Amino acid sequence: MGWAEVFARILGSDVSVEIRAFDGSRAGESGAQVCVEIRSPLALSHLAAAPGELGLARGYVSGAIEVHGDMYTALAAFPAVALNDIPPNLRRELAVKLAGYRLWWPVGPPAVEHRPRGSRHSKRRDSKSISYHYDVSNRFYEWVLGPSMAYTCAVYPEATSTLEEAQFAKHDLVARKLGLREGMRLLDVGCGWGGMVMHAAEHYGVRALGVTLSRQQAQWAQKAIAERGLADVAEVRHVDYRDVTETGFDAVSSIGLTEHIGLAQLPDYFSFLAGKLLPGGRLLNHCITRPDGSHGSRPGKFIGRYVFPDGELEPVGTLVSAMNDNGFEVRHEENLREHYALTLAGWCRNLEEHWDEAVAEVGLQRARVWRLYMAACQLGFERNVVQLHQVLGVRLDGTDAHYPLRPSW
């Protein structure tokens, strides 16, 4: 039996892609839109060492597996793979074939795999985990994200809206939910490259402070703020949000930070943000969530080791309860998961359009990580594996929420 047949048997009989292997064998659907090429025995060695998505990801990131055709189409064609349940007879066949090449365990995972050390969600470990993902290259992010440099779910007014139009609409929706008005003070935690900070300052006359654990993000944002002539009203600092000493803000935005906080830290997180607000001040919490509580908080091994180390996703009910119990009255929430699928599709297109430059900038392995993770996430939002929720809370002024009878946005 050839290597292609072995790989097809591991994936399942209903795989609708063509599979080709270095030994000349073929399997799967001949002439399919997507072809998976097994370039080396190391592909199966990675699967033997780490059955499941991690083994497949290692094979692809290392180059032992190649995907010819669109990555999203390839992933959509794969069946639900339960590689941990490889039948014993197939395991034996795999072991015999690998032994013939003097292989079983691979030499090691690809160099870009990350395993953080230290106390989970300590300031030191959080800083290293954030730096691993975000301090890659500002130029790389400019190619992938586009001019907005917004690395969070956009809001599409229409399905035909451009990515830039949708990112503007997202920032504006957040501003209107927060009730921003001229002269207010905004704190944006986990501010990225400063998109929300600059939008609030430029379009709403707000004095805005953003904080990020990424040094490269802060440097890029401060330069952009100066170039837009906003230095008197906008600032981005390279600092942990927990080290912000100022208080008395009218509003707090948290757009894509909560995924990095961790379940055990949620009470302190929301309590800390409530303490930064004036009475009647609002918090808009925008983050990826689980669709329900049937799965654990931590992501799959591929995302955890190659994309967002120490990331944790909670069901929206968990977030709402934590907000309610730690200083906020929840006034509104909505699920934008379809919008995130559209956002990711835009980022995927951007990456493919700049593929050669991206590889030259960050290396082939890291570029492959991005191609795989963004296509997989697009599929995940479409299939309701993950969701994106905006939750609006108010720090009450006694019993007064300073909130309109109907939402004004």
UniProtKB/TrEMBL annotation:
<keyword id="KW-0808">Transferase</keyword>
<dbReference type="Pfam" id="PF02353">
    <property type="entry name" value="CMAS"/>
</dbReference>
<dbReference type="InterPro" id="IPR003333">
    <property type="entry name" value="CMAS"/>
</dbReference>
<dbReference type="GO" id="GO:0008610">
    <property type="term" value="P:lipid biosynthetic process"/>
</dbReference>
<dbReference type="GO" id="GO:0032259">
    <property type="term" value="P:methylation"/>
</dbReference>
<keyword id="KW-0949">S-adenosyl-L-methionine</keyword>
<protein>
    <submittedName>
        <fullName>Cyclopropane-fatty-acyl-phospholipid synthase</fullName>
        <ecNumber>2.1.1.79</ecNumber>
    </submittedName>
</protein>
<feature type="active site">
    <location>
        <position position="377"/>
    </location>
</feature>
<comment type="similarity">
    <text>Belongs to the CFA/CMAS family.</text>
</comment>
<dbReference type="GO" id="GO:0008825">
    <property type="term" value="F:cyclopropane-fatty-acyl-phospholipid synthase activity"/>
</dbReference>
<dbReference type="InterPro" id="IPR050723">
    <property type="entry name" value="CFA/CMAS"/>
</dbReference>
<dbReference type="InterPro" id="IPR029063">
    <property type="entry name" value="SAM-dependent_MTases_sf"/>
</dbReference>
<keyword id="KW-0489">Methyltransferase</keyword>
<keyword id="KW-0443">Lipid metabolism</keyword>
